[in-house]
Amino acid sequence: MCWFLNWAGALCLDWHRVRIGELARFKFTVEQTPTVHGRLRVGKSVNAVLIAVCEFLRFCASRGFVSADVIAGLSQLKYLAYAPNGFHEGESGQFRMIRSRVLKAPEVEIPPKTITPEQFSSAMTAARTERDRFLVLLLVRSGLRIGEALGLHREDMHLLPTSMHLGCTHAGPHVHVVPRQNNPNSARVKGGRARIVPVEHEVVLQYREYLLERDQIPAATDCDLVLVNLTGPNAGAPMSYSNAKQIVERIGNRCGFRLRPHMLWHTAGTAWTRSGTDIDVVQALLGHASRASTAIYQHPDPPGSARRGRAGGRVSAQRSRPHRDSCSRPEGGKAGSNG
Length: 339
Hints:
Layout: H1 2-10, H2 20-32, H3 43-62, H4 68-72, E1 75-79, E2 97-101, H5 117-126, H6 130-142, H7 146-150, E3 157-158, E4 174-177, E5 195-198, H8 201-214, H9 241-255, H10 261-274, H11 279-286, H12 291-294
Antiparallel strand pairs: 1-2, 3-4, 4-5
Helix pairs in contact: 5-6, 5-9, 6-8, 6-10, 10-11
């Protein structure tokens, strides 16, 4: 809102009497103004700004600060040609006439950037420590976000065929994604939703290799978090997001391609979707609150390319449907890792 009000003030416009033509100029300004990263905003970001401005004007109109004529110009009648499933159009189709936004930018769905199996193999080879290989493998095979991986505690790693001795009823190797507000590295679980994610035997084996490396750091003994620094003055301390991001980027630089932590997460979601895993299972595995967020992984292959396998995990829909908090922790103590 500050952007809109400052823009109107700089042009000596009275925002109380703003017209649709002037709002169109503001839309153009939003589209052509680069972000702090030097990139132009995509249609979804432009529309988010425009919706906020329009709702602000509607609120002001309800309080008498903006005339009704201004609000009337923000939308127009439109015939709904393609109704969603379950839509009731009325006895004479009167509900197909809806009010549509006048100001909106086109939203082009861009497939998320992923890595190929060859790039994944190169990244695993280019990783210089067992920890780095475990981090890359965990993100690609389990679909954890980088913040969720950095927030894993050793007690969250249930990597034996059964964890009944820990009070966990979930079968098979898995990790618990637990929202915590007091992680020393400020790692957070997006949305604050706990879930259980199955992991493959390959991840279990790599975790064992990493633990052998981790045990060589005396200061890491007292650290509850899984991923720690291996060298330097902060050896044994939990890894920060900036450190993990730099490690992944350096691996990509050594391989000769751009690599970011989020690309590994997207690779997992794309691989599961293309392997035929149910969309609701993929949604639960990735921790999405809305199925619309998961739908981006149903994008088609690039033109002219054959359907290729991705580097992500091979997930069985029957075996891997995540459970929501099916693990009970022992009272007064940690569940402990069985990895």
